[in-house]
Amino acid sequence: MDYKKILKTKSSRAAVLNLLRFVPDVTMLKLQYKIKLGRALNYDNPQRFSEKLQWYKVNYRNPIMHECVDKYKVRDFIKSKGLESTLVKLYARYNSIEEVEWDKLPDSFVIKTTNGGGGLNVVVCHDKNTLDINELNEKLQCKAKKSRYGGREWAYYGLEPGIIVEELLVNSENPAAGVNDYKIFCYNGHAKYIIVDTDRYIGHKRNFYDREWNNLHVLSDCPACDREIEKPSNLDEMLSVAEKLSEGFPYVRVDLYNNDGKIYFGELTFYPWSGYVQYSPDEWDFKFGEDFVLEKF
Rounded to a whole number, what is the largest CA-CA distance in the chain? Predict the structure, then answer.
């Protein structure tokens, strides 16, 4: 079923999910999994990575996760790990969009809500002089209030909305492309796979590598890059950072930027793509799940 043909806008889909909040988590996840991936969810004995993420949403309840997914509070978590040097410069933090002092911000920046996950809560501003403040206000106001109950992603439950403004990292070799985003799959403190998102603003591409930088030639919901992505000279340091941040979690994706040889923290993601990605070859859905050990917490 192509649900997007029936519910054509994100707002309409969000409205339906909100109406269905009374449906038990497991029932709802089985329904969404079937609709989005076209197969039944093996919830009782999950083997696929995508299946284990659904189980993880319902059963893993580590309170520190709330701090880790809050875009502002996670900065304290990063500092507690001795990695303050990886934090992107913070210009300001506000309780609401109405508080933003636009005249005090630099010409370029990244503004995001603190209580959301993924790119949906982020607006990149390259030139403040061309920014439509009213349109931006409307977008961020909506995102700040956005509920995560639709995907039943427990880590985001109960987060207080807020706004932060950070430095915009610029790719010195190709400013229009944006900096590479290294998404590192970590299992109980061990970094095993690196997913690289490149050319974010000029034709988003994604490659999958192992920790030795062998291209795995995996496809997901984003096209593969048409060229080999150069291995970072400080890859070992990046993996070390990811492993420090992932200690104690059965699974977490650690997102890092590597700009002109300096490593920056991006975010911690416990439910990447909400677990609704079809990998090709399909065997990789199982391989990504092999080290994801589930226990009765």
Answer: 55
Query: Which amino acid belongs to residue 237?
Result: E
| Amino acid at the residue 96 | S
- Asked if 49 contacts 291 with a C-beta cutoff of 8 angstroms, the reply is no
Give 231's strand partners: none
Q: How far apart are the first and last CA of the chain?
A: 34
Query: Strands across the sheet with 90-94, in order?
Result: 90-94, 163-166, 109-113, 122-125
pLDDT greater than 60 at residue 269: yes
Q: What is the 3-state secondary structure of the chain? A: CCHHHHCCCHHHHHHHHHHCCCCCHHHHHHHHHHHHHCCCCCCCCCCCHHHHHHHHHHHCCCCHHHHHHCCCCHHHHHHHCCCHHHCCCEEEEECCHHHCCHHHCCCCEEEEECCCCHHHHEEEECCHHHCCHHHHHHHHHHHHHCCCHHHCCHHHCCCCCCEEEECCCCCCCCCCCCCCEEEEEEECCEEEEEEEEECCCCCCEEEEEECCCCECCCECCCCCCCCCCCCCCCHHHHHHHHHHHHCCCCCEEEEEEEECCEEEEEEEECCHHHHCCCCECCHHHHHHHHCCCCCCC
Tell me the residue type at 61.
R
pTM: 0.92
Contact 153, 120 (CB under 8 A): no
Confidence at residue 131, expressed as pLDDT on a 0 to 100 scale: 85
Reported as a pLDDT band with limits 50, 70 and 90, residue 8 is: very low
